[in-house]
Amino acid sequence: MEQLRNKQGFICDMDGVIYHGDRLLPGVKEFVDWLYRENKKFLFLTNASSRSPKELQQKLGRMGLDVDESHFYTSALATAKFLSHQSPNCSAYVIGDPGLYNALHDAGITINTVDPDYVIVGETSNYNYESICQAVRHVLHGAKLIGTNTDLTGPTEQGIVPACRALVAPIEAATGKQAYYVGKPNPLMMRTGLRLLDVHSGDAAMIGDRMDTDVIAGIESGLDPILVLTGVTSREDIDRYPYRPRLVLSGVGDIPG
């Protein structure tokens, strides 16, 4: 634990680590206070693509946490950055929420429902059969399929719900084409996070609630991989994976001590 407390940078997942739905998890306020008090560099890096950094800042503000907008980075921003480098001024058919649309717009990517270069899928409650059919038609006509992240499920106050990869799956199955997923554990997103923190990977920790995205992202990117048991992964689940977190904590409230 002392090794973890001595790290200079902290990359933290949000859903299942900081909150569930609109409920702040126990110990989070103490953890954030500790980050500020110890002058740690930190980033809330989330695979969720629905909200912008400003919206995430306001969401935490409503829960009583005052965190600057610069401390947030999302898979929507990572997806927009990836596409703006791969194919500047491209167009896309998008299944997603405002956070994804805004990130794409800010990166100069236009919405196109006729002959898009890409089909991009993120989490959304506006998911329906017609949008799947349209996405399938575009992919069969040559559009490249992109998923904002590989999360199959996500935690909510009501329990586990389908997430991005579950929404992409019907399109992959119907077209025979595999999506490229941009969010964790893709090293693209982790490297951007480290650059934003201006910290070397060896001086940083990755704190998350998922073995299949957070912990593996930490391991593959050279960060200290820390699992908290406040989200998707239980202690019993850990042995199902061929890799392990360095520490397993009941929650981030364990870190300040």
What report would you give on this structure?
The protein is an alpha/beta fold. It has 2 domains: 2-47 and 184-254, 3-Layer(aba) Sandwich (Rossmann fold), CATH 3.40.50; 76-181, HAD superfamily/HAD-like (Rossmann fold, 3-Layer(aba) Sandwich), CATH 3.40.50.1000. Helix content is 35%, strand content 21%. It has 9 helices and 15 strands. The protein has helices at 2-5, 28-37, 53-62, 75-86, 98-106, 129-140, 164-175, 187-197, 211-221, and strands at 9-12, 19-20, 23-24, 41-46, 72-74, 91-95, 110-111, 118-121, 144-147, 153-156, 159-162, 180-181, 204-208, 224-228, 247-249. The chain has a 6-stranded parallel sheet. The model has no long low-confidence stretch (mean pLDDT 95).
Give the tags.
single chain, Rossmann fold, alpha/beta, six-stranded parallel β-sheet, 257 residues
The first-level CATH class of the largest domain is given as Alpha Beta
Principal-axes shape call: globular
Q: What is the architecture of the largest domain at the second tier of CATH? A: 3-Layer(aba) Sandwich
Strand order of the largest sheet: 5-4-1-13-14-15
User: What is the makeup of the main sheet?
Assistant: 6 strands, parallel
State the low-pLDDT regions, or none.
none
Overall average pLDDT:
95
Strand content: 15-25%
Number of strands: 15
Number of DSSP helical runs: 9
> What class, by secondary structure content?
alpha/beta
What number of structural domains do the residues give? 2
